Amino acid sequence: MTEHVNHVQHPLVQHKLTLMRQKDTSTAVFRQLLREISQLLAYEVTRDLPMTTKRIETPLEAMDAPVLAGKKLALVSILRAGNGLLDGVLELIPSARVGFVGLYRDEETLQPVQYYYKVPTELADRLVIAVDPMLATGNSSVAAVDLLKKSGATNIRFLCLLASPEGIARMKEAHPDVQIVTAAIDSHLNEHGYIVPGLGDAGDRMFGTK
Ligand code: URA
């Protein structure tokens, strides 16, 4: 991946996303679709992982077979909606290390404030994939990447379902080295910071809260 944004236009991703956007899609179906899309997006975000070979024996003969090289990658969920993407990706990459970043917005300063932070060791040696379904204003995503870099991460990708042009611009300005993988780039943010047309509040829709 060399582009700053990888917009995944695979027909299955686009079809499933349309179902997720619809307001009458149930919580159970929304969650299942998110799991399925997360695995298709995981395929894209890991497409150029470094490989090496390992000597193995098939029932017929020995061969040098391809295997992933380097340290186990780290998945970092930006709470709480990130957990919806995390589950599916983790199913596909079960040996990944997992971290969590919890941020809330201070209503006076409007700045993200950290309330939880736990990430795997040796982040400098790992590909770090931060996951959050919605790249909206970009404030919390940028803050999460700031924290990951403070912990030593140098190779970070950002995996989301929907991105706004504003969020992409904000991330590009703050962290031009972080590649964004997204299923869609929507029109704009509304005055409440929601992505339009979007899918509403991703956390509420996946957890059935309001
Ligand atoms: N977070 C959401 O869940 N939805 C949006 O549209 C924006 C941020």
UniProtKB/TrEMBL annotation:
Cofactor(s) needed by this chain: Mg(2+)
Example GO molecular function: magnesium ion binding
Means of activity regulation: Allosterically activated by GTP.
InterPro entries for this protein: PRTase-like, PRTase_dom, Upp_B, UPRT, UPRTase/APRTase
Native organism: Yoonia sediminilitoris
Pathway connected to this protein: Pyrimidine metabolism; UMP biosynthesis via salvage pathway; UMP from uracil: step 1/1
Entry GO CC: cytoplasm
EC number: 2.4.2.9
Function description: Catalyzes the conversion of uracil and 5-phospho-alpha-D-ribose 1-diphosphate (PRPP) to UMP and diphosphate.
Sequence positions that bind uracil: I195, G200, D201, A202
KW GTP-binding (keyword) present: yes
Binding residues annotated for 5-phospho-alpha-D-ribose 1-diphosphate, in chain numbering: R80, R105, D132, P133, M134, L135, A136, T137, G138, N139, S140, D201
Biological-process GO terms, alphabetical: UMP salvage; uracil salvage
Pfam family name, one: UPRTase
Residue ranges occupied by any Phosphoribosyltransferase domain in the UniProt entry: 8-209
Catalytic activity: UMP + diphosphate = 5-phospho-alpha-D-ribose 1-diphosphate + uracil
Keyword Nucleotide-binding on entry: yes
Key words, A-Z: Allosteric enzyme, Glycosyltransferase, GTP-binding, Magnesium, Nucleotide-binding, Transferase
Name the record gives this protein: Uracil phosphoribosyltransferase
Co-factor note (free text): Binds 1 Mg(2+) ion per subunit. The magnesium is bound as Mg-PRPP.
Entry similarity comment: Belongs to the UPRTase family.
CDD domains: PRTases_typeI
